[in-house]
Design goal:
- This protein is an alpha/beta fold.
- It has helices at 15-24, 47-65, 78-85, 97-113, 133-141, 152-162, and strands at 3-8, 30-36, 68-74, 89-94, 118-123.
- It is built from 6 helices and 5 strands; from the N terminus they run E-H-E-H-E-H-E-H-E-H-H.
- Strands 3-2-1-4-5 form a 5-stranded parallel sheet, sandwiched between helices.
């Protein structure tokens, strides 16, 4: 069984993330969405809220694709999380050249820690390349419409948070 891990903070999950998840499903038998506990980022939504949002989105994707998607919170090294869930592939989404530079460094470090785990990069769909959770939160905080960047349940959660 090919198991992939798609890690991130998902604060909140966006249509860009959903696009990567849908396309990653074609590459693996089981996709684990690793929701990171990143204390450095001061997330808008707490871990339980982020896990619930990701689970809601992934349940729909799994139902449509017939694939298996699990949601797993983690606060250890990415490579250790991959081992914990049995992943042999780490899926990363790329939006721009700046993403690649950071991800290139991460791949090198992860390969030094465990060369048996590969990293696969998926380019964000052209319509989704500008979407970043940080920008979505800023637009929502300032009262802007983020419905083009997130699903309706996430849009609702953002509106409630900033009401």
């Amino acid at each position: 069984m090919r198991i992939g891990l798609y890690p991130g903070t998902f604060d909140p999950i966006t249509l860009g993330h959903v696009d990567i998840i849908q396309r990653a499903m074609a590459l693996v038998d089981r996709l684990v969405i690793g929701v990171a506990i990143n204390r450095d980022k001061s997330p808008l939504f707490d871990l339980d809220e982020r896990v619930a949002m990701v689970r809601t989105e992934c349940d729909e994707i799994a139902a449509k694709t017939g694939g298996e998607i699990l949601v797993h919170a983690f606060d250890n090294l990415l490579i250790d999380c991959a081992r914990d869930v049995g992943a042999t592939v780490i899926v990363r989404g790329l939006r721009a050249v700046a993403d690649f530079e950071y991800e290139f460094q991460m791949v090198g470090m992860n390969r030094a820690l465990d060369s048996s785990i590969e990293t696969v990069f998926l380019m964000a769909d052209a319509r989704r390349q500008a979407i970043a959770s940080k920008l979505v939160k800023e637009i929502a905080r300032l009262g802007g419409d983020v419905s083009r960047f997130v699903t309706p349940p996430v849009d609702t959660a953002l509106r409630r948070r900033f009401a």
